[in-house]
Amino acid sequence: AQALVNGQVTVEGGRLRVDFRLWDVFSEQQLLGLQFTASPENWRRVAHKISDAVYERLTGEKGYFDTRVVFVAESGGRVGRVKRLAIMDQDGANPSYLTDGSYIVMTPRFSSTSQEITYMALRPEGSSIYLFNLETGRRETLGDFPGMVFAPRFSPDGGRVAFSVERGGNSDIYVMNLRSRTSTRLTADPAIDTSPSFSPDGTKIVFNSDRGGNPQLYVMNSDGSGARRLSFGSGRYTTPVWSPTGEYIAFTKQTGGSFHIGVMRPDGSDERTLTDSYLDEGPTWAPNGRVLMFFREGQGQGPRLWSVDVTGRVQRATPYPGSGSDPAWSPLLD
Length: 334
What we know:
- The chain is mostly beta strands and 334 residues long.
- It folds into two domains: 3-59, TolB, N-terminal domain (Rossmann fold); 68-329, Neuraminidase (6 Propeller).
- The chain is built from one helix and 27 strands.
- The chain has one helix at residues 43-59, and strands at residues 3-12, 15-24, 29-38, 68-75, 82-89, 96-97, 104-110, 116-123, 126-133, 139-141, 148-154, 160-167, 170-177, 183-185, 193-198, 204-209, 216-221, 228-229, 236-242, 249-255, 258-264, 272-273, 280-285, 291-296, 304-309, 315-317, 323-329.
- Strand 21 and strand 22 (272-273) form a beta hairpin.
- The protein is globular and about 65 Å long.
- The two termini are 31 Å apart.
- The mean pLDDT is 94.
């Protein structure tokens, strides 16, 4: 072992006090020593904060343990399937449900600046995009759009939401300023343009489009100008998402009878597939850009949440016990 953690937990006046030290085994020197106090019911968050501190000291990068994941919890059969908006700790613990299942929810996405999410709600009368503040419980719609609206995602500063609008078989990408509530159309191609995702500096948007014949990845300036193709491999590329560090763009790739979660550089180079399965889809980045969560479906099985590190070597099922899809990772909690 290169490092050793030891510590103790005491209760003083109804408060939990946790002291821990991180040691370098070879030099026999202390690397880190911290103390946390919390109410006893927050013991899991204390453990996650300790994990983040140890991870950062050993790797030099921020951790991702004190975070949450919002996703679509699925139950029931293929017909009449119930899809509820749900949230859990990143390790699958403490799941709770934010909608009652009376309507279908899809593509929930976290703001990178606050505990706010945006998602699509599908009802018999049509679709809407909502903003939901997790701290206040306030829920509001982005407004009425003729046609189907879907695939919303926040800008890095939390001030805009990009989304797709489908009318008459044609889908285009729009962006709305949340302060003024004015929307701007960014694409005007007869093809299907969807799944917009901002670069970390907010200056570019990656999206997928079938303007070249089959779905591929494209990048454009955040005002809609300068669109150019990124992916040139065989297969279908969808659901792109820029990593928080700007280092990679993750995506879903379908080739033959298999699905993959893959990554490439923002200029389209260094493409790698990280997973290979009957159906892998919908990657989301941990806030440090080192781990991805996605959902995997087997033949005749419901979707489950999985994670993979950016090397592709460490894959594992998230221990949420039920079916889940469309995960989205939160920023580090305050």
